[in-house]
Amino acid sequence: MLRVAVPNKGTLAGPASEMLAEAGYRQRHEQRDLTVLDAANEVEFFFLRPKDIAIYVGSGELDLGLTGRDLAGDSGAPVAEVLALGFGGSTFRYAAPVGERDWTVADLAGKRIATSYANLVSADLAAHGVSAEVIRLDGAVEISIQLGVADAIADVVGSGRTLRQHGLVAFGDPICRSEAVVVERAGSDHDRTKEQLLARLQGVVFGQQYVMLDYNCPRELLAEATRVTPGLGSPTMAPLADENWVAVRAMVPRKEAPAIMDRLAAVGAKAILSSDIRACRL
Ligand SMILES: Nc1ncnc2c1ncn2[C@@H]1O[C@H](COP(=O)(O)OP(=O)(O)OP(=O)(O)O)[C@@H](O)[C@H]1O
Ligand SMILES: O=P(O)(O)OC[C@H]1O[C@H](OP(=O)(O)OP(=O)(O)O)[C@H](O)[C@@H]1O
Ligand SMILES: [Mg+2]
């Protein structure tokens, strides 16, 4: 039985469970359930605090865990990333009050820095050769300067709204660029159930990052059109009843799809359709 940790709360919990459900795994119906057994797929899911997940996986008690790259890094647990999941994107950054001065990381020397990710911050300060006091807080870190316990902070930045609301500005290079990831204990083996879960999740991630384009193309413009949509391997082509036309089907990156559709229309393609891919195996 494969044992897999899933966030039970916070930003990553909803999307992580939805992705596992899309991959065909049973997920919990009740928010308070801490385990779910998916006997058909030989997997047991454990719903744990996101911060704790890498610790369980690093100790070898659980085989895989879905967590944030930043959380896994901060835990210091001996885990390795096996798959990036494409959601829960954030940066982890230093920030300080707007207008006080143009802060640099070197200016943090001798200062108090509040954070919920003390290990990441200590390691980054050491890498910069800066000696400062790290104040460990559990959350609402942005308010700590106002309340007088810190001079600067290091925190997760998503949209940047929370920093702006508190009159703070980020500075320095991001300490970490994070997203949700699957981790395993470093150096551990892959058995059939683990490989299957990773392949299914990979298929859902691909499905979310690509769309399927279908279009009809005059035969003489095929070479030009398929240069625009080379597909992952090679585009699928099928003859139409009108022998001067061909139907083409190719996967394209979701973010580029509108621009690719513009280019196909300019080439002379017609009936250009874009559709979602729920999951795929390449
Ligand atoms: N806007 C965001 N705010 C917080 N965490 C985010 C955000 N966007 C992505 N994340 C990621 O979510 C993970 C943090 O999840 P976690 O559940 O610990 O905190 P949370 O979502 O802030 O919930 P809570 O603070 O209520 O426990 C990190 O990997 C972080 O990078
Ligand atoms: O850049 P934004 O989109 O504004 O998001 C970032 C904020 O969201 C998180 O806080 P959360 O709401 O989880 O509260 P917490 O500080 O108690 O963890 C994070 O710690 C930042 O404070
Ligand atoms: Mg939080």
From TrEMBL:
GO terms for molecular function: ATP phosphoribosyltransferase activity. It catalyses: 1-(5-phospho-beta-D-ribosyl)-ATP + diphosphate = 5-phospho-alpha-D-ribose 1-diphosphate + ATP. Residues 49-203 form the ATP phosphoribosyltransferase catalytic domain. Its EC number is 2.4.2.17. Signal peptide: none annotated. Pfam families: HisG (PF01634), HisG_C (PF08029). Its main location: cytoplasm. Keywords: Amino-acid biosynthesis, ATP-binding, Cytoplasm, Glycosyltransferase, Histidine biosynthesis, Magnesium, Metal-binding, Nucleotide-binding, Transferase. It comes from the Bacteria. Pathway: Amino-acid biosynthesis; L-histidine biosynthesis; L-histidine from 5-phospho-alpha-D-ribose 1-diphosphate: step 1/9. Residues 208-278 form the Histidine biosynthesis HisG C-terminal domain. Feedback inhibited by histidine. Its cofactor is Mg(2+). InterPro entries: ATP-PRT_HisG_long (IPR020621), ATP_PRibTrfase_cat (IPR013820), ATP_PRibTrfase_CS (IPR018198), ATP_PRibTrfase_HisG (IPR001348), HisG_C (IPR013115), N-reg_PII-like_a/b (IPR011322), N-reg_PII/ATP_PRibTrfase_C (IPR015867). Transmembrane segments: none annotated. It is found in: Cytoplasm. HAMAP family: HisG_Long (MF_00079). Belongs to the ATP phosphoribosyltransferase family. Long subfamily. Catalyzes the condensation of ATP and 5-phosphoribose 1-diphosphate to form N'-(5'-phosphoribosyl)-ATP (PR-ATP). Has a crucial role in the pathway because the rate of histidine biosynthesis seems to be controlled primarily by regulation of HisG enzymatic activity. This is ATP phosphoribosyltransferase. The gene is hisG.
